[in-house]
Amino acid sequence: MKRRTQRIALVTTVATAILFSCQPVYISANADDMVPQAVSDSDQLSMIERVSNDALRTEIQLMKVSSNFHAAWLKPNRFKSWRVFAYKIADSGLTNAGITTIAASRFQYMDDPSKAPRPYLKAGHIMNLTAASILVCGTLTETLLDRISDYRKAKRKQDPKSALDEFLRLRKTLDDLLAQRKTLVMNNSSMSPYQREIIEADGFVLEDLRTLVSDEFQQAYCEVAKLKSVRDLSNATAFFSGATAGYMGSLQSLLSVANRHPNQTGVAGMGFITAGSSVAATPVIVKLGSELAKKRAAGKLERNAITKVSPGAQFDAHRARFEQLVASAPPSERSLLTALDARNTIYKLHDEMIDARDQDRAIIKRKSRRDFAERLLFSSIIGGSNIARGAQLVVAGFHYGDNPEKNFKLVAAASTVFIAGSGVWTLDNIQSKVREELTERKIKAGRLSVHGKLLRDLQDLQQMEDQITTY
To answer: Which of 119, 162, 227, 325 has the fewest Cβ atoms within 10 angstroms?
Structure first.
């Protein structure tokens, strides 16, 4: 970061030095007659320089569009994080208390179910129904807030459609500038061989940077599509599992006690089997769904001629060649090429910026693999224990509905199974939040968040644009 700041400062220094050092070059036809040297050639070279600077400025603007769009969707929301934790811990905690109460009531009276107080039998089901309702209402609330957030982003032109439209508009401008530059270079027959070599090398770098900037937008666009899909699928699966567990499961269990219809316990069991299957499958559903959303986003970009390419090695080679030519150029060859050093410095900054983002993506990819394995483990335990609970309730309700003693024994056994599952669920919610907070503190202390880096990149890009605008 310090090196990048120093290089941005160097651009300013170079700009000032060039502006004060560039003087008109004259030749003398005779001692009394001084005329400007090749005015038309000078104008042509100046035009090439101006178009090159305009092209680089447009590429900076394209990078800003990508960075601003990406940062808007990665902006951390601490309030949401704590709200979601509150919903989950309330759901898992109440569920654990409720299922423990159900198991205790059935074990206590399984030898003589007729003596069991009905309020005692209902209490655990009421707690479970309340827990599921908290999760369902919380998920609906977050879904509504997400839609409001999406609407606000659209108003600020930070939604995927607006970002893509703006990117395509600017890239069309860039392509026109690059085509104009090629025409000017081809039609200029008076520049020296060394000047032509420098200008052509500069053109290769500009072309490579155009590809790199397009690739960066492709990465950001697909990552946002994946992020949005993960968010929406997580909400959908949480709502589905909460609704089936609460209203097809706990509500039916409560009604079986209230209406004295033990067969309804079987229906409740089917609800818990469905909810448990949803929980167990959630990591896979979210992963596959988000990858599909990412692929669809990539297909949409491909139809707009934006494809994933990695021309990093080519860019480095062309930039090294350009840097070598600029460093070894004699003053007479570069007197009319006024912004070479400034552009070269900006190319280096772009290279560092894109390399840093590639490194961040590699780290995030490794972390996402670990997170997926962890989610798969916990979801299998939590969902699997709920499936086992539901299976026993199906047998209790449909097979032993007329046998209260066996019905109570199976309900007690089923509830005991899910005491462990809901306990693991509560533990998972707590450890996930603790780790999240520790990671957040570490990131904040080291200023390592991707969102924070994108904001710093935007500041650097603005300084680059300000400096190249000098020419």
So the answer is: 119
